[in-house]
Description:
This protein is mainly alpha-helical. It has 13 helices and no strands.
Amino acid sequence: MNRENDLALNVLATGYARNPDSALLFTGLVRAYVRKKQYGRAVELCEQRLEKNREEALTWELLGSTLLLKKDLKGAQNAFEQAIRIQPDWGQPYGNLARVYLLKGEKDTAIKKLETSLKKNPKNKVAWLTLGSIHEQDNAYEKAALVYAQAFEQNPGLWPAANNYAFFTSELADCKSELQTAMEYARKSERLNPDAPVILDTIGCIQYKMGDLDGAHDNIAKALELK
Length: 227
């Protein structure tokens, strides 16, 4: 496998040397270096490209992502901010910038960056799940449930959002109709990813709260078996 990876990297490097204007080959080569954890080579490649064109958002984004892996938070933050300055409608740099602020312990700023990212691109799955996770960690379960509901509305195939919404809705439920709503979303998640232990566990917990003890036992037992 390593030999195949080396061959692919050499092909990309040769191709990019012959076609230095190709954003596709550049991206592939940077990612190949990153996969091999040759972060210094990836950073060097980005910086060389920026010497020729400092107004290419893609290069700043790739540089920021690589610096983030190197734990260079200051450098990564600057790179993502440059990408946003150049291409303010691109959602990805906002999400990555939020990750920087989270690692710096600046949670409120991270939330604002994620919310801005989602206004730019409501299909950004990672941003939705990250935002929901932050609210979970704060024990702000109502906010988390709302985020997951919106995430699933924008991304109907995002089964973790449907499952998480089902779980938190059932945890907060104080009537049968809310439990039924939770079950509906749990089943939607199940249809997208059948036999996933985390989904079966959610279904089992909801069944227990609805008084279906046999169903709860079967699904939780199956979830434990599949883990």
